[in-house]
Q: What sequence folds into this?
């Protein structure tokens, strides 16, 4: 794959352009933060692997930050794709294996807030089936229906900026409450994110576009209760047999 060095420079340039107001700053800050902390090779390699890729939410728009338009701004699926590539590279995974993961025809969306008492069970099911079938794209899509849910989602975005997205997201999914701020700050501290370091990051995070996009996708899929799983936009029951069959059907159709 040919490296395109100009994409990262465009990220830095775009931050200074007023139109950034229409973009989720965390997407850009995540990569710029990698550059500022001495991980420029990770940021550049991420640009290389994601160059020209469409958003996995299947809206037919492109991932934000590249040189192709229109882009899908605010979408949790887009953010998850970028975070997955960056954290995989940080962990030393072979870029060729990462590419195999992100070109998968399957995306499993789990529409739920972190505060939902049933999310741990549903998320575990989605991850189990996806792993057994060799899939990696399982995305949390929080509608943020309460103030506690909004704050939890904000902390997850802070973790994304710190390169701790996957581990911290799993911690919140498996947390059974309470959901007050002090408790969540304690969980964050346990993942190397002290309260004093988190507060400045909140200024970089605007969830309005993300919430709007995730709620829009839930409406488009006629989702009225949470948690709910969709496979490539198709609602499926949260049972292992149904989810397994839905994924296998798409994989089989794609192989014909």
A:
């Amino acid at each position: 794959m040919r490296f395109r060095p100009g994409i990262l420079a465009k990220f830095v340039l775009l931050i200074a352009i007023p139109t950034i107001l229409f973009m989720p700053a965390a997407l850009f800050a995540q990569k710029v933060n990698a550059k500022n902390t001495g991980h420029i090779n990770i940021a550049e390699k991420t640009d290389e692997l994601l160059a020209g890729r469409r958003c996995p939410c299947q809206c037919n728009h492109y991932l934000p930050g590249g040189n192709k338009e229109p882009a899908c701004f605010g979408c949790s699926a887009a953010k998850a794709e970028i975070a997955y590539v960056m954290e995989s590279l940080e962990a030393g995974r072979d870029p060729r294996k990462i590419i195999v993961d992100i070109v998968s025809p399957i995306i499993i969306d789990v529409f739920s807030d972190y505060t939902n008492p049933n999310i741990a069970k549903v998320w575990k099911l989605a991850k189990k089936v996806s792993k057994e079938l060799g899939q990696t794209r399982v995305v949390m899509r929080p509608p943020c229906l309460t103030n506690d849910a909004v704050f939890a989602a904000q902390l997850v975005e802070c973790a994304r900026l710190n390169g701790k997205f996957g581990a911290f997201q799993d911690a919140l999914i498996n947390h059974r409450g309470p959901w007050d701020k002090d408790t969540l700050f304690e969980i964050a501290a346990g993942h190397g994110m002290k309260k004093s370091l988190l507060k400045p990051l909140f200024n970089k995070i605007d969830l309005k576009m993300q919430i709007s996009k995730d709620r829009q996708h839930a409406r488009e899929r006629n989702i009225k209760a949470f948690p709910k799983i969709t496979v490539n936009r198709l609602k499926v029951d949260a049972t292992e047999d149904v989810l397994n069959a839905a994924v296998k059907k798409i994989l089989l159709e794609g192989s014909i």
Remarks:
- Confidence is low (pLDDT under 50) at residues 1-32, 34-38.
